[in-house]
Specification:
Length: 347
């Protein structure tokens, strides 16, 4: 019997996670759920965004269903105590280095996309983002210049092993899909990116069946709105992957539609919608739970090896959308629970 750690977090996190739980319960898979506080909620309860008990639960669970963290009321805290440090800490402590972010347009949402329908309709890609390196985890600091001006620095760094292991995930994913891998970097400016490109080219020798291309991140951002249908799998670093996947969310209608998986070497993972805690709409029943529900499907597929029920969830979301179910971010009027009801009805 698989144990699922439920870390709902802050803002709309508990609302959307509740709907994901309803869908999982409806499948009657014999899962056991255990909840724990994280983020701002954990700071309020235990004076730390990632308390020892929460981390211990995450380590012993078979998978983690995560909501969202963040709240402006905690912005004045020291950086190590802010809610966002919880997710960074979980990634580092659990070795969750590979972030999978599938991006596709659900039929019926063409008009919700920021792109022309004929362009948006072609979107079906996977972003593989490295999660435990880059400027997010590099050395940081504040100081003053020799002229007395305030300055800050964040170190962007990768070593060859970190690049190679996420590149392999990208190549493996491309081999299972359409056989095309795009590596995104900024090798014309950044030494870190020059190393990234060098290592990706070396790993490519083991995946000759996959067509590898490279693109600078600024061009990739442009191409993502010009002709997104050209992309199959994109592999990139932490910072660039964060930005590109959020951009991609508006190409398919709403950030409320995109799930994600953060995996370790063995496939154990943390599964969360890519959106944030949206404190401005928290508690109002306006949040779109589809990304959380689809994250639960990814959990079943990647960590629990339950592909059939994962397929059922994804098909139910697609059917609900095709049937006209829409939350406000998609131009509709359904509440968070109303959208959950529509998915359950389709299931």
């Amino acid at each position: 019997m698989a144990l699922i750690a439920v870390l709902a977090g802050d803002g709309i996190g508990p609302e959307v996670t509740t709907q994901a739980r309803r869908v999982l319960d409806a499948l009657d898979l014999g899962l056991t759920f255990e909840e724990a506080p994280v983020g701002g909620a954990a700071y309020m309860a235990a004076a730390h965004p990632l308390p020892p008990d929460t981390l211990a639960l995450a380590k012993r669970a078979d998978a983690i269903l995560f909501g969202a963290v963040g709240d402006p009321q905690f912005d004045g805290l020291e950086r190590d105590l802010r809610p966002e440090q919880a997710i960074l800490g979980l990634r580092k402590q659990l070795g969750l280095f590979a972030n999978l972010r599938p991006v596709r347009l659900f039929p019926g949402l063409e008009d919700a996309s920021a792109l022309k329908p004929e362009i948006a309709r072609a979107i079906d890609l996977l972003i593989v983002r490295e999660l435990t390196g880059d400027v997010y985890f590099g050395e940081k600091g504040r100081g003053r210049t020799h002229k007395g001006l305030r300055e800050g620095h964040d170190l962007m760094r990768y070593d060859e092993a970190e690049v190679a292991r996420v590149a392999r995930i990208g190549f493996q994913a491309a081999a299972r899909r359409r056989g095309k891998l795009l590596s995104v970097d900024k090798a014309n400016v950044l030494e870190t990116s020059a190393l990234w490109r060098e290592i990706v080219n070396e790993v490519a020798q083991d995946f000759r069946e996959v067509e590898l291309t490279h693109m600078y991140v600024d061009n990739a951002a442009m191409q993502l709105v010009r002709a997104p249908g050209q992309f199959d799998v994109i592999v990139t670093g932490n910072l660039f992957g964060d930005i590109l996947s959020d951009q991609a969310s508006m190409c398919v209608g709403s950030i409320g539609m995109l799930p994600s998986a953060a995996l370790d070497e063995d496939g154990k993972g943390l599964f969360e919608p890519i959106h944030g805690s949206a404190p401005d709409i928290a508690g109002q029943g306006k949040a779109n739970p589809c990304a959380a529900i689809l994250s639960a499907a990814m959990m079943l597929r990647h960590s629990l090896r339950l592909a059939a029920p994962a397929d059922r969830i994804e098909a139910a979301v697609a059917a609900a959308i095709a049937g006209g179910a829409r939350t406000t971010d998609l131009g509709g009027a359904l509440s968070t629970q109303g959208m959950g009801d529509a998915v359950l009805a389709a299931l």
